[in-house]
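Quarterly update from the structural biology core.
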Amino acid sequence: MTSATKRVPIPANGVDYRGKVVLAPMVRSGELPSRLLALKYGADLCWGPETIDKAMIGTTRRVNPRNGCIEFSRMPSNSINKEDAKESVIYRLDPVREKGKLIFQMGTASPELAVQAGKLVAADVDGIDVNSGCPKPFSTSGGMGAALLRTPDRLVSILEALVKEVGEPYQIGISVKIRLLETPELTESLVSRLVRTGITGLTIHCRTTPMRPRERAIREQLRMIIQTCHDAGVACVMNGDVTSRDQALALMQEYGADGAMIATAAEANSSCFRTEAEGGLAPWREVVHAYVKYCIECENRFGNTKYLINMLIPGKNKEFREAKQTKCYADLCHVLQHDDLLPAAREVDELLNLAHKSTMKSKAVENAIANNETARAAGGASRLKNTTPASNGVGPIRTNSIPKPVKAETKSATAEVDASTISAPQPPQNEVVA
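Predicted structure, tokenized:
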């Protein structure tokens, strides 16, 4: 068998990364609604957001009876008032719509903790990936993420433990995502060690640890990394400045990569997973409607929903400013004119204790008051006696039923009583949104 055709076997419950254009693991941007959105527009696989092993350990697995999602939740460990503390969902997945498509990415610095966390999710995901490339302090400060590139012995031991104690028993693949090291020699040495641990895939982010997303990806080492992976029969996925499916397929062809991973372009418009022949980028309003629908269905935390909404809506649009001010799903649907989603939005607002944060009703009342003030300033209030009953909402006054005054004082008192019993005009019903 030649090196070109050598392939490590794909476990029965795992997935092959070859020929795939996939969604990158992104903290906050990689929650369930975002993944469903990427799958809707053609992503072949989705990496979930990096989830720390210690956060998963101690969680309880439950099936949400309202939507069928599997949720791993736990009580917060740092809550001041334990009695009022509520469980937090650490990880949520859709066992139907994500079946055969979901890779769980783990942040870890310990083989033992990695195995504990891996066993919790292994039966519900299609692969486990170890994050060895995140440069953020929350990851590196604990020896995780890109910090593992400096401790290759530890990284190797983590991968070997996951392969033996999680991958083989649960029949899923274990993979790793790394960044470039300072020199091609250092990168090649590391990759050569990693592909011998029993992993089925390796993703290379074509940037070094200090580099930021705005800096151009470095692809000069890519062919060497791909060849090193192929020599061991391991699939290699490329990442960095991949912005569309068409570009991904072209880069895979050019460099010989098995797959390509899209990150920031998917945050801006997830329809980047469609080819031009399939329609290319969809209008942002279509994408946002689908995203909000998924968020409501998944009962996604509203703060997380708004995080990606702020990226999906172009900043120059008035909807961007209005959506940024909303504090619940009903108000968000109102400003985006998603009237078809309003009933479900109100239900999930009640469920997530957001209904009391709605400002749409008070705004309608303020508008009605402002309109009345404008009419009064224009002199409209002085002609109230000539207003027909149909226009002001007050029934006809039967003047023949009013007793004739005996004295001037009685007439005055009667007028005061009549004025107090006439109800104020009610605002139109369509101005009030629950």
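Confidence is low (pLDDT under 50) at residues 380-434.
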